[in-house]
Amino acid sequence: MHLSREEEDILGGEHGVAAAKSMEILLAICKIFGAEKLIPVTSAQISGVSYKTVGDAGLEFLQSFAKDGRVRIPSYLNPCGMDLEEWKRMGFPKDFARKQLRIIQAYQKMGVESTCTCTPYLIGILPKKGEHIAWSESSAVIFANSALGARTNRESGMSALASAITGRTPYFGYHLDENRIAEVVFDVKVKLEDMSDFGALGIYAGGIAKQRVVAFEGMEDFTVDEVKALGAALAASGSVALFFIEGVTSEWRVVGKPERVEFGGRELKETKESLNSSKDAELIAIGCPHCSLEEIKEIAEKLRGKKLKRKLWVCTARKIKTKADKLGLTRIIEEAGGRVVSDTCMVVSPIEDMNFKRTAVNSGKAAHYLPSFCKQKVLFGSLKDILE
Amino acid sequence: MKIKGRAISRGKAEGEALVSTEAIGFLGEVDTKTGVVVNPKHPLFRKCMAGKILVFPRGRGSTVGSYALYQLKKNGKAPNAIVNEEAEVIVAVGAIISEIPMVDKLEKRGFKLIKNGSKVVVDGDKGIVEVMR
After folding, report:
1. Domain boundary among A156, A175, A194
2. Cβ–Cβ of B89/A65 closer than 8 Å?
3. pTM to 2 decimals?
4. Does the domain formed by B2-131 have CATH 3.50.30.10?
5. Is A29 on the interface with B (CB under 8 A)?
6. Residues A171, A60 share a domain
7. Closest CA to A254 of A188, A206, A183
8. Are residues A115 and A36 part of one domain?
9. pLDDT, mean of residues B95-116
10. Residues of chain A with pLDDT under 50
11. Tens digits of residue pLDDT in A270-287
12. Which of A1, A17, A21 to mutate to test the interface with B (most CBs of B within 10 A)?
């Protein structure tokens, strides 16, 4: 393996302990996956932020790494386990909050921006086609690869942090053209009406595709938010990192004779049924991945002048919430009895310790993870269904 | 007997081999306070890995397992070194951040030559495992 002079210096400890360890991590990954070199990346997006997922072990590690670890490239955080401004009023456990804040401080000390969102691409972080990045949130990875045409592997929180500190990533996998080829094609034979339908398609297709690249034919008429929902579900039920949509995505590589699968009305209905385990809910949670401003507008429109019988969380990036505040959307949602929640979401916050047992969602990804991550029964349906 | 392998995590350590025929998931299968394997279905159930040369095929389970290995080390219950049949990222990263020497891919089926209780020296700089007896 060839290392540049600078890479040798980092490995040798000239840039500090954390940088040397980061380089060692990236070189181990090179060995494991047969990468022959490291390449520069322009940004890192780091998961492993919620105290709920990383625990005391993660907290201790991050604090020690933050002693001399400093990022070299723009680096952003995935959602953490609570709203960093409203956690007290929302009833987050105190001990949890204390440790969560320490994790955020450790990342801040390293120079990582506390964006705390899974949708950096909705707050202006938009890598260009062909740009190499190191992102770790699976829904952001698949969106960046597929919708933006940028190039990233599915990094772990740790490997993305190592890339943030060294500015490099191992050159293999989705950084190479030869691995950006669809191996399974889904022929969509049913009209997808809303976000929950796109999520259901993602859950179904991800289960079949596993880690393979996916192509979709027959899809028409959809929004960016629906593509976001599709990708997130694909990356949750499978470990898909890249998909193509005929006539839409900038890349479309289908060669030879890939496996072909039909997705019709029956598959849609059965998938939606399989994600449902409850007829009612204490909490309605929207924003997995985090809501765009357009989604918040739609929710506010539906809630104008109404009173909700259940708690409602609309999860989004803080930057988007600020916009929603200015447009009066937050006020409409709050007047209906809901909340616009930032920095976190229903999956990485400890909702199971906050007296929620049943949650209503329109996200395929959330419906997939809530039973295991948060011990929830799930009501899965369209935005209209779950708000009523 | 010296066996050539691949260096994954730097450093040198020795100890008695604790050999597992099965993969290990450090998050959930190991108690990080005691270093004892707590999964009743695991061949190393109730065995303590502290101070041993932990020899196992590969890691499995959650990526947070890297941090669990780090916590074992902080608690003084980590293995002295790790030998894998073939490394994967979770254990490799865990070993590196915890400064536990690690070697994998031993030549000539060398992995199978390490027996439970053998005295072993692991050189994570050169990628060499020495089995003393």
Report:
1. A175
2. no
3. 0.94
4. yes
5. yes
6. yes
7. A183
8. yes
9. 94
10. none
11. 999 999 999 999 999 999
12. A21
